[in-house]
Amino acid sequence: MKKYWILLAAALLLACNPAEKRNVVIDTPLEPPVKLQTVPAATRDNYQIYQVNTKLYGNSGRLKAIQARLDDIKALGTDIVYLMPIYTEGTKKAFGSPYAVKDYKAVNSACGSLSDLKDLVKAAHSKGMKVMLDWVPNHTAWDNAWISEHPDWYKKDGNGNIIAPNGWSDVAQLDYSSEGLQNAMLDAMKYWIAEADIDGYRCDYANGVADAFWQKAIPELKAAKSGFLMLAEADLDRMFTNGFDIIYDWDMQEEARKLINGGNPADFVTFYSNEQGKTPAGKTRLYFVTNHDKASENSPLDLFRGKDGTFATYALLAALNASPMIYGSQEAAYPQPINFFTVTSVDWKADPDLTARYKNVLSELQGLNRDSACTFYASDRILYIVYEGSATIGVNLSNSGTTALLPDGKTEYKFGAYEVKIWK
Q1: Are 79 and 129 in contact (CB under 8 A)?
Q2: The pLDDT of residue 5 is above 60
Q3: Which DSSP string corresponds to 11-30?
Q4: Are strands 130-135 and 80-83 parallel, antiparallel or unpaired?
Q5: Which of 156, 226, 246, 385 is a good FRET partner for 319, with 20 to 30 A between their CA atoms?
Q6: Dihedral (Cα; 401, 404, 407, 411), 10-degree rounding
Q7: Residue 421, strand partner residues
Q8: How far apart are the first and last CA of the chain?
Q9: How far is residue 366's CA from residue 214's CA, in Å, rounded to a whole number?
């Protein structure tokens, strides 16, 4: 009995010794993720879009250079190749903007020829991709023939002088109260369907154009080619009513920026859910971390915590029930702003590891059924998206690795910094 009490006393002494306590490892159980919200099922057409700034492809032969990269573009899960304006640019009062269109029915010689465009479209179609052109309906270059031939197609000030829109001094504002203008614009839009077999338009500053024009033009364009798509560079819901299939979501870019920079995942999910609730069935919103306008101000690397944070943010957006868009150069981690008025050289092989990550994740997301209800969960800086009976996507929003439980509350996974993991 005495021996028992001696051993017990020794054990208690050891347990209370601070020096010994330092070597004790306490295995704290992981907390299960917190359910944030379930977003109801919604039937939508989702497209992975790749925006091509043609001025990243040299001073000449741009369309052929783009065609040579179609396999790499396709490998990013691309459904639609969207070309920034390929039309002849004005020179009067010009700054080099491709959005100052001199002739709506002519290919800019720096891009190539109509034959080059036809070849590009045909090659894209053979790889299962659509081609969308950028359309500029709100204004023209100052040396567009319409100014001298049809001055009544333009808005004027009190002195009868044609005005520039929004302080954009290199372009002249069109006036859609003119039926002649409406007919000419629609004729020009139909031209590229007939001549080059294009599949859609991204319409620049679409909300600057009269709603009545879109309500007239879009049905005719869709009648001209089955499956024709219309994307509005506008975040106004009335663009859906006007017939557009996809509209820009500028606010989502800001919400995504806040999230990757330490924002509350619950706030992000609430914003997304509200946007989905306002989007009609069959329609979709365009999500992006950058585009030609945003990239002219900042590289996305400066806004989204470097190339890895940008990748994680974009992958999250690409997994949502919307249409995500890559701005060409993003996948190569181009570190500087890009002035789309000037020719810029991009090394497409600058970061092969990052490019491969984009390709791997976006190819995995292809075919994902986003129409089902999805539930969001959060575990510290891990955000999960669970599509019913389809897939679970986990995104680490942090620059440090961590081990977390999956939404089932049982399975552990060790995430790397800014890792994106998909379980199907």
Answers
A1: yes
A2: no
A3: HHHHHH-HHHHTTPPP-PPP
A4: parallel
A5: 226
A6: 120
A7: 394
A8: 62
A9: 31
DSSP conformational letter for 162:
B
Q: Give yes or no for a contact between 373 and 388, defined as CB atoms under 8 angstroms apart.
A: yes
Q: Are 96 and 341 in contact (CB under 8 A)?
A: yes
Which of 240, 170, 417, 384 has its CA nearest to residue 312? Answer: 417
Q: How far is CA 32 from CA 119, 372, 378, 417, 423, in A?
A: 54, 24, 9, 20, 18
- Looking at residue 24, its pLDDT comes to 39
* Strand-pair category, 229-232 with 284-287: unpaired
Q: How far is CA 140 from CA 77, 94, 98, 129, 185, in A?
A: 34, 11, 10, 29, 11
Residues 61, 260: Cα–Cα separation, whole Å: 39
Check pLDDT > 70 for residue 291: yes
CA atoms within 13 A on the CB side of 33: 29
Task: Look up residue 260 and give its DSSP letter.
Answer: H
Given a contact cutoff of 8 angstroms between Cβ atoms, the answer to whether 85 and 98 are in contact is yes
E-assigned strand segments in 174-283: 200-203, 229-232, 246-248
220 pLDDT above the threshold of 50: yes
Partners of 248 in the β-ladder = 286
Q: Report the SS3 class of residue 398.
A: coil
Lowest mean pLDDT among 4-8, 83-87, 257-261: 4-8
Sequence length of the chain is 424
Tell me the C-alpha to C-alpha distance, in Å, between residue 270 and each of 234, 255, 273, 403.
22, 10, 5, 26
pLDDT band at 27 (very low <50, low <70, confident <90, very high): low
Find all residues with CB under 8 Å of 323, minimum gap 6, and list them: 45, 46, 47, 48, 49, 246, 284, 285, 286, 287
CB 189 within 8 A of CB 217: yes
At residue 29 the predicted structure's pLDDT band, cuts being 50, 70 and 90, is confident
Q: Tens digits of per-residue pLDDT, 176-217?
A: 999 999 999 999 999 999 999 999 999 999 999 999 999 999
Distance, in Å, from the CA atom of 380 to the CA atom of 34, rounded to the nearest integer, reads 9
Tokens of 384: 């999960």
β pairing state of 382-387 and 374-379: antiparallel
**Is the pLDDT at 330 greater than 50, yes or no?**
yes
Model confidence at 415, pLDDT cuts 50, 70, 90, reads very high
